[in-house]
UniProtKB/TrEMBL annotation, chains A, B:
PROSITE patterns, alphabetized: HTH_TETR_1, HTH_TETR_2
SUPFAM superfamilies hit by this protein: Homeodomain-like, Tetracyclin repressor-like, C-terminal domain
Name of protein: TetR family transcriptional regulator
HTH tetR-type domain segment(s): 15-74
DNA-binding region, residue range(s): 37-56
Taxonomic superkingdom: Bacteria
Regions that span the bilayer: none
Pfam families for the chain: TetR_C_43 (PF21597), TetR_N (PF00440)
UniProt keyword NAD present: no
Keyword DNA-binding: yes
Amino acid sequence: MVGMTSDRPLRADAARNRALLLAAAEREFAARGLDASVADIAARAGIGKGTVFRHFPTKDDLLSEVMLDRIGALTAAGERLTGSGDPGAALLEFLTLAADRQQNADMSVLQEAHAVNERLTEARGRMFTLIETLVTRARESGAIRADITGTDVVLLMCAPGHVAGFAPPGSSPDLWRRYLAIIFDGLRPAGASPLPVDPPRMS
Amino acid sequence: MVGMTSDRPLRADAARNRALLLAAAEREFAARGLDASVADIAARAGIGKGTVFRHFPTKDDLLSEVMLDRIGALTAAGERLTGSGDPGAALLEFLTLAADRQQNADMSVLQEAHAVNERLTEARGRMFTLIETLVTRARESGAIRADITGTDVVLLMCAPGHVAGFAPPGSSPDLWRRYLAIIFDGLRPAGASPLPVDPPRMS
DNA sequence: CCCTAAGCGGACCGGCCGGTCAACTTACTT
DNA sequence: AAGTAAGTTGACCGGCCGGTCCGCTTAGGG
């Protein structure tokens, strides 16, 4: 019996604290990346540090759970787009959703993938498959150039948020949209120059 | 008398150690970013940790010196390109040099600019001016679209290395060239879509 | 209402890291 | 060759962080 998670239902206060904790962790990781400390997360949630470790045996487990939520939501939204009549617009919409996450560049934490949590890698795989589908359709419809692969898009999807993160503090919180537009233009067939290196293969 | 650095010439062994230290720091920062520890840098250089702090009062000062070297070399190379007859190619060549730095994504450390070292901000400013020049000429020659500013390029210049850094371990060390080509295509006039947000203003 | 197990929390531990220091070594001067 | 200032070094310090633990609180069933 490996992997059984639900022994019994959570007590009411525990469930509330767990939700507070996850929300706080999401905000804290978004703001400070992997350097966010467990103590700070606990403080932001208004609970004790020990309680964090009661809910998640490890900081990495907490991070995994947060990422799982995000990836799940993004994948679900993306899957709803696969039926769109305009594959190019669908891919752009998906990338917009992916880069949005309140202009944080931390979704990239996903890609580092230190925690090899089983459920997380599975969710990752599901999202990669989705992206492959969106990219294939966009490619076949002529919306993006022929030599772009799903892996390319996986690697590029967090770049707008990351790039915009370097802007000086006063800048528009929507700046990532500017760089998404530029990068997506680079994926279009118009005026495409030949690409010098083969795309990587994802594990 | 503020800013006088050269009281007297360094002793021979001290000069040698300083060079070893800077080389080791460059490699270590490139490999592990800001998380590189002073002890590891010292070990890589084959010197004691105390010696590091004799040469640089602070880890940030050491980092600043390394960045200063890099920015200086890159700026010098870039200034040699401003005379080129093909402004578009000159900009692309500059971006290639910038992203190259052995495919490390850590040049971005520059942009975070925690250390407000006076010389470093000056070097930064000189490089920004250079980039502005290269971009203006490329824009006026029609090599890149009209709505791209120097600031855009400053923010985008490290993206290829950063993006390629997420690729699985076995990938080509030249993968950044692929993403530089894609992003640069996004800067070209052909098939450009209107940009949704104004560019930021650099301090 | 009361009992108990589930949940909570903060003091505590070991390890790491940036930075200091005083004892030791070594390159240059005369 | 000898003196000395410059340079080196590793033990050491304080602070932070992930993770543990045990005494306390409280939800919720009977």
